[in-house]
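Could someone model adenosine-5'-diphosphate with this protein?
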Amino acid sequence: MCAAVVVAVDGPAGSGKSSVSKAASRALGYAFLDTGAAYRALTWQALESGIDTADAAAIVALLDGFDYRTTVTDEGTRVTVGDADVTDAIREPRISAVVSDIARVPEVRLALNDAFRRMIRETDAPGIVVEGRDITTVVAPDAAVRILLTADEAVRIARRSAELAPGTASTAGQLRERDARDAQVVDFLTAAPGVVTIDSTELDFDQTVQAVVGLVNDEQEKRL
Ligand SMILES: Nc1ncnc2c1ncn2[C@@H]1O[C@H](COP(=O)(O)OP(=O)(O)O)[C@@H](O)[C@H]1O
Ligand SMILES: Nc1ccn([C@@H]2O[C@H](COP(=O)(O)OP(=O)(O)O)[C@@H](O)[C@H]2O)c(=O)n1
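Reply:
Sure, complex below.
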């Protein structure tokens, strides 16, 4: 039994899942778990090992020695695989381009989901905000608060483009293709029963964070 309040957040690429969830977790004094970082780190490991990401058997073979860790520092969360700090590398477009290959392998999802559930159980914070694609439905369907964070595609592409150096066109194509491929594996475009949709298309960043924090506070009040 997990004593922490679990806040599950799913949504498509660029909807604000990680930045909004991180800020909300800070405001609430909760821990934060970015599940996409683990899929990205395993992808980094595959590319580093010269493995074709379409080779599911080779990817599954990587799982055994996959030494994935996250460390919270004053500068933010650092992600390491073995001795390598991959915090920045896992955000590179070369990773985004093939991460969906890795995420569609059932053995990968089972292994990572087990690890995520363990991290949730072991948190010593009063709550934890967990974000990804299947948190509300598969990883933590019994979470106290379950949110689908969305925004119109054009807005998501504009936000993502503003972060990355390459032109909007390639960002747009990659984001669309990744969402389409990911949606074949898990449904993060429609809210499952009991999941609250927050559409941030017309909200600025702070308003979106406030919407998440408000939902959590409302839920906490109901439980008192
Ligand atoms: N409501 C919002 N208004 C404006 N910018 C936002 C909003 N939500 C997120 N952003 C910005 O959009 C970008 C993508 O957000 P991110 O958290 O990386 O999305 P995701 O994790 O869903 O892919 C970030 O630069 C973030 O600061
Ligand atoms: N719970 C999750 C989280 C991520 N993923 C995969 O990991 C990739 C990277 O996730 P991410 O959350 O870092 O992606 P962004 O939305 O931040 O761009 C996604 O495109 C999915 O392929 C997943 O399948 N299930």
